[in-house]
Amino acid sequence: MTEVSIRTATLRVRRGAPGEAPHYADFAVPYEDGMSVLDALRWIRVHLDSTLAIRYSCINANACKTCMALVNGEVEYTCIAKLTPEVTTVEPLPKRPLIRDLVTDILSDEEKL
Ligand code: FES
Fold first, then answer.
1. How far apart are CA 103 and CA 45, in angstroms?
2. Pocket test for ligand 1, best of 39, 55, 77, 93 (most atoms within 8 A of CB)
3. Do residues 38 and 67 lie in contact, with contact meaning Cβ atoms separated by under 8 Å?
4. Which of 18, 51, 61, 76 could cysteine-pair with 71, CB 3.0–4.6 Å?
């Protein structure tokens, strides 16, 4: 009998909405080589917490530019940022107005009518 070991990664996600005290939630996610941070966030929404607010559109095509967040303190597209089998911290963009969790208002003032 062959034993299959499942590796896990931890995503530490900053949660909260404007007017709330932000907090960090840790999620254990099955890890496979080549996974993106967005793959892990989508897995969390499907399997652990459907209330986690994230934004994406094109999924791994790096075309829509809507999935940006801070990944370990750096601005990244979560769809191309590679997940590592350690702790990865994901936070909303710090210079954009927060909507909830990882979703920020990314529209420029000219685009808001
Ligand atoms: S999901 Fe479209 S650029 Fe990341």
1. 14
2. 77
3. yes
4. 76
Locate the domains of the chain by residue range.
8-107
Ligand 1 pocket mutation, candidates 36, 55, 79, 103, criterion most atoms within 8 A of CB: 79
Retrieve residue 74's tokens.
């750096």
Total-model pTM: 0.90
Please give the single-letter amino acid code of residue 96. Answer: R
In short, whether 58's Cβ falls inside 6 Å of ligand 1 is yes
Is 2.60.40.10 the CATH classification of the domain at 8-107? no
- Compute φ and ψ for 3, nearest 5 degrees: -90, 130
| Encoded amino acid at 10, one letter | T
